[in-house]
Amino acid sequence: xxxxxxxxxxxxxxxxxxxxxxxxxxxxxxxxxxxxxxxxxxxxxxxxxxxxxxxxxxxxxxxxxxxxxxxxxxxxxxxxxxxxxxxxxxxxxxxxxxxxxxxxxxxxxxxxxxxxxxxxxxxxxxxxxxxxxxxxxxxxxxxxxxxxxxxxxxxxxxxxxxxxxxxxxxxxxxxxxxxxxxxxxxxxxxxxxxxxxxxxxxxxxxxxxxxxxxxxxxxxxxxxxxxxxxxxxxxxxxxxxxxxxxxxxxxxxxxxxxxxxxxxxxxxxxxxxxxxxxxxxxxxxxxxxxxxxxxxxxxxxxxxxxxxxxxxxxxxxxxxxxxxxxxxxxxxxxxxxxxxxxxxxxxxxxxxxxxxxxxxxxxxx
Length: 365
Ligand code: PHB
Prior knowledge:
Layout: E1 11-13, E2 16-18, E3 22-24, H1 41-49, E4 55-62, H2 79-94, E5 99-104, E6 122-123, E7 132-134, E8 141-143, E9 148-149, H3 155-171, E10 176-181, H4 186-191, H5 206-209, H6 211-223, E11 229-233, H7 247-261, E12 265-269, H8 283-292, E13 297-300, H9 305-313, E14 319-322, H10 324-328, H11 332-338
Parallel strand pairs: 3-4, 3-14, 4-5, 5-10, 6-9, 10-11, 11-12, 12-13, 13-14
Antiparallel strand pairs: 1-2, 7-8
Residues 28, 60, 70, 182-183 line the site of P-hydroxybenzoic acid.
């Protein structure tokens, strides 16, 4: 590759100097230690291998027992989990990397089997999505159920779960956090009209639907300097049965409010999730967001390295996050820098399991 490869222009992300524009996207791998959903040595080895990424964003990590929606995903609400994540961040930092933790509450994408006391999962409205989760190694994918609508006076408690997760992420040695407001999980369920039919201050107008997300942003900003707080959104994603009547308006309003907070970055899923962009990118929604929000911007969604270079060169994004290529190539930036071939991924080992398909993808020889 030429010396002028845009993927290798350093980028200043708040206080962090990223050596390249290749970001590791948040990726659920379902390999936490059990019981207790805690990160352990194998997870530290996996992230250490990927320390050459400009920035690592951790897999989605539940902020509370209520925020859990899948078997074997890690949390950030117990001392054991904080200690496990500390092992991970120490490993990444020793290898020269930078890492954010993704703060996650799944809302209705859960099951009583995964909830404290077998409770019914919660959501903005009691609308059952056409969506699945896995509750055990043997369960396979099972349908989620009709959730319980959260009362307005429960929402400060939800915000508190995110704030506590942010505190714990600091104790665990992360460089920052990313608020998960995408892909059909709790904050996204509030943002979009298809899943939010509330008639109180948290539903109806875009201003009302963005309220809970902005309360979370404000709470997390009390813990972390603003430049170290990012957010992930997916305005046109359909994963987990999501949709919005008017994504342009909803996300313009959100982007305006994010701009006013000075948030550290926006990461946007620029397709319908899982590389389904056959109909093309939603450029008008991207424009609406980027017209209102002018800070650091990470594009995500099945980009090839060449597309990523073109998008950066064209000023369509600052950074690009890669999912499956980062699973299969621990040394992805080095491979891209030198034009070396990439390993293929094996989707059968994405979730659950051991080192196979996790820490055994080879570095380029
Ligand atoms: C998943 O576990 O399938 C999953 C988790 C978080 C996401 C997307 C998918 O944002």
